[in-house]
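Q: Please design a sequence for this.
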């Protein structure tokens, strides 16, 4: 009976904590970890890693441990990479998980050229045939109206409507605005049944990011050979770290500590990669030519990513692992 009461108390405590949770999640194992989609419908309570890798040497130029999926991660990672490189403009390749109109728009505003794989156009409402999907309609920017495959103009009343789409977490909606386009000609159209099931005629929605998304999609279509290089670039470090070295999980808990642990792993990878590119003598020669300032900057950068508690925790766990092996 006592155990039952303890369980009931824990359950009630979790219910109360869930009410105050920002994203509707609570992890009893690691408070800062979250349920993340790994692949298709495979979900695990874990952390995520955002990395930016240069295309020439496959060096990691930026990383950040997070407890969120990739939906809103494109711009922060791309901007950080741009700042590290000191470039006026850079080109970023990313997979479908990063496809987000708001993120693409912010990248374009900051001179970041995107080639992000896009999802096929969804049917805005039940559309009986593929011949009348939205991509078969032509948008006239000067007149601000759409021309349907039958030559009719779908016009807007000028009103702007607020909407929100829920990404991976129900309590974290992504707001955006849309305009509606329609025409009375639908009511007398001979092919209305092929275009829409809506008894009032076809309604086309155009959101605020349609143009920037269209430019991104066009680049992906026209530069397929460039986009195909994505896996060979960004997956190169993970092939080494996860497959060759066996780092498929982290030892520590908490976002700050996990971020520090990953920082150590990525730093080792970069050093090892630099050895492969330059050779040990050349790397040592380069470091010596930079003097003490180089080492101080490197150490300060690493310390900024990892707290003392995280560092101590990491080495304590490493020592435990070594003792177990011994």
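A: Design:
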């Amino acid at each position: 009976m006592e155990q039952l009461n303890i369980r009931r108390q824990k359950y009630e405590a979790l219910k109360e904590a869930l009410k105050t949770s920002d994203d509707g999640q609570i992890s009893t194992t690691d408070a800062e970890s979250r349920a993340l989609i790994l692949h298709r419908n495979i979900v695990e309570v874990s952390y995520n890693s955002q990395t930016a890798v240069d295309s020439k040497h496959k060096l990691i130029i930026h990383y950040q441990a997070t407890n969120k999926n990739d939906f809103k991660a494109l711009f922060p990672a791309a901007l950080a990479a741009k700042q590290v490189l000191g470039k006026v403009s850079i080109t970023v390749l990313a997979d479908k998980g990063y496809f987000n109109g708001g993120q693409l728009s912010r990248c374009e505003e900051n001179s970041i050229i995107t080639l992000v794989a896009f999802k096929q156009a969804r049917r805005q409402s039940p559309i009986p045939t593929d011949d009348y999907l939205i991509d078969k309609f032509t948008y006239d920017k000067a007149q601000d109206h759409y021309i349907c495959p039958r030559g009719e103009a779908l016009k807007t009343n000028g009103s702007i409507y607020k909407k929100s789409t829920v990404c991976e977490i129900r309590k974290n909606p992504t707001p955006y605005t849309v305009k509606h386009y329609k025409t009375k000609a639908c009511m007398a159209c001979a092919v209305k049944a092929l275009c829409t099931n809506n008894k009032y005629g076809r309604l086309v929605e155009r959101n605020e990011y349609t143009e920037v998304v269209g430019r991104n999609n066009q680049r992906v279509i026209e530069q397929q050979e460039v986009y195909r290089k994505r896996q060979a670039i960004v997956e190169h470090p993970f092939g080494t770290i996860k497959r060759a070295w066996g780092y498929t999980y982290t030892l520590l808990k908490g976002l700050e500590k996990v971020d520090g642990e990953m920082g150590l792993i990525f730093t080792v990878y970069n050093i090892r990669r630099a050895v492969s590119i330059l050779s040990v003598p050349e790397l040592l020669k380069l470091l010596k030519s930079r003097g003490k300032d180089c080492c101080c900057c490197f150490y300060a950068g690493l310390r900024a990513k990892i707290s003392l508690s995280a560092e101590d925790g990491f080495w304590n766990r490493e020592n435990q692992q070594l003792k177990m092996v011994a």
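Q: Thanks. Anything notable?
A: The chain has a mean pLDDT of 82. The chain is about 45% helix and 20% strand.
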